[in-house]
Write a structure and sequence with these properties.
Number of strands: 0
Helix content: over 70%
Number of domains: 1
Radius of gyration: 17 Å
Shape: elongated
Structural class: mainly alpha
Length: about 110
């Protein structure tokens, strides 16, 4: 690691990766359960419901994976310190696990 490494305690990308990974695991299964109980009266409501669930189900895990990967790459190249590396790894793993399990409805 060189002398120009930023020595922040936790960086925003690390925290974002962790929070998005946790939201993916905790909130999205609840959203899927909640969205199946809402009656749909017309096509517009159905499209809004499906779009919202799709954005949350795909967007949150992708954000966790992308932000964690970016921060891990910066740590590997020596531009940043190792602080927050665990947050990055946790966010990437949780996002990846959810993306893998998203295909199987038994886990949601």
């Amino acid at each position: 690691m060189n002398d120009k490494v930023k020595l922040e305690k936790y960086r925003s990308l690390s925290i974002t990766a962790l929070v998005m990974g946790l939201l993916t695991v905790v909130a999205i299964p609840q959203i899927f359960r909640w969205s199946t109980n809402i009656p749909v009266y017309n096509l517009g409501e159905l499209l809004i419901k499906l779009t919202t669930v799709f954005i949350l189900a795909i967007g949150l895990p992708l954000i966790a994976i992308i932000t964690g990967s970016i921060d891990l790459r910066r740590i590997k190249t020596g531009r940043l310190s190792n602080k927050g590396k665990g947050f990055d790894i946790t966010g990437v793993v949780l996002g990846a696990i959810f993306m893998i399990l998203l295909d199987d409805d038994r886990y949601l």
